Amino acid sequence: MADRSEPLFLKLRRPNIRFLFLAIIIGGLAGYGAVLFKLILKYMQWVFYQNTADWLTFAGTVPLWMKLVMPTAGGLVVGLVVSFFASEAKGHGVPEVMQAIALRGGRIRKRVAAAKIFASAVTIGSGGSVGREGPMVQIGASIGSSVGQIFKIPRVHMKTMVGCGAAAGIAATFNAPIAGVLFALEIIIGDFGVMQFSPVVLSSVMATAISRYYFGDFPHFDIPTYSIVSLWEYLFYPVLGVVTGLVALAFTNSLYWLEDRFDAIPIPEWTKPAIGGAVLGVVFAVYPQVFGVGYGAMNETLLDKTPFALMLVLIVVKIVASSATLGSGGSGGIFAPSLFMGCMTGGAFGYVVHMLLPAYTATPAAYALVAMGGLVAGTTYAPITAILIIFEMTSDYSIILPLMLTCITATVMNSTIQRASIYTTKLLRRGIDIEAGRERHLLSHMLVKEVMVRDFVTIPQTMTLSSILWTFKTENAPYLHVVDEDQRLTGIISFRDLRAVLNEEGLADLLIAHDLATQNPVTVTTDDTLQDALDKITDRGVSQLPVLSTGKEPRVVGTLTELAIDAAYNSATVKAEIAEDEQRMES
Question: pTM to 2 decimals?
Fold first, then answer.
């Protein structure tokens, strides 16, 4: 037991106490980062339009030339920042944080926070149709990474520090501390363990307290009173989940389709955001609702003030505007655009069902509120975060069941149709697959020949059943490898393959190995990675694979078991942690 008189600085060296202390620091810095970001964003809007109010309140007074020129100028400035100062500031930010955790142990360059604040503020202030939560996630994560690097946190714990910053960013942006915690655990860290949970909670609470001190404790939206009119309404929410899921898929695919088109243009990269800004200027000159974050238009829909036809049009227009902004290289988040599209989708859906069944359904605003969560879940594949962020904005428990039905439906449907979320799709396009996290990273760097078992049993394909049974008895082997006269693998036999014929009389000398073997078994070669082998084992539901040599005439040279892969992964993990601890002690 530790000495109660132990000095405070020694207690802080304990990992658990130290991490909690650092989480508070990260939460405080990220909270003030959010305050600074909001102030700079307002200032940038004033620089471009000499007005800091919601765009809808003064759009009619802005001349057409300014609506076209200012987004273009903003795009040009962002292009220069991204190209010559910090390329990580491009796009919606969250994939860059996930990539830093997967490939760089959570290390993010210290300049990223400053670059992201400036680039995103210019993008949104000039009219970019994106959100500010993605930038705040990256800003907070960068702060968390910088704190971790300053205090020489081991690599294995750096992702917790990054997660603390990400949670603080979401919490301070949306005034939603619980959603901030779940976002970090569900998307950034991917781990709900106590060692991750406690620091993330502290960081989120700290950032929320700072944000509320400066901006008050109130939601971004004029939230309508929510209620379930009848039990029949519960039948409509899974349908709403399907609809929001389809819109989410359209947004994800449109975003990356436009990004490909912009990448293919043979001009300097720093000029492309200006082209996106010009396109955006044309769009919001006609539809001012999609300017910037779009909270004003969402508030009107939540108050049932947006016509049905306009809601349908704004879904498509917002997809185009947000995709043009981000696809061209602008800086901003996809969370707010998802909320916007969900609001319009739900409002239009609610209008239809309320028109058909007015006595059994709530007003369109209620469906708009629920669909906001559904579309976030459909793009991010993070239903828990989507449910909680809407719940925290309403503080109304009656919305939970409709939210759960809609968000889970959208997530399950979209993840079935398209494996990657809007975040991980960007990483997959870079050749980075973080679905299996550290396991995939480690196993992809180990070869089958390093861990395969070279002691295996082969039998000729002409061996009789009686001899096969004797071989199983004497060799104590789970599988027998059947080979032809040239020693090429033709099949494998497990004892399970023999059960159907064991009680049949007169077959012991009639059946041969060729008749009983599983033909064309799944195999791996000596030069395959353990990740490739694990994927095959998982897909086929087997416990081991025959290993073949490479070359024109492959031969059986070993066998690879799932237990061997697990042992190799555990050994590699322990070695990596020991190396990190030794490096930390040396530094």
Answer: 0.73
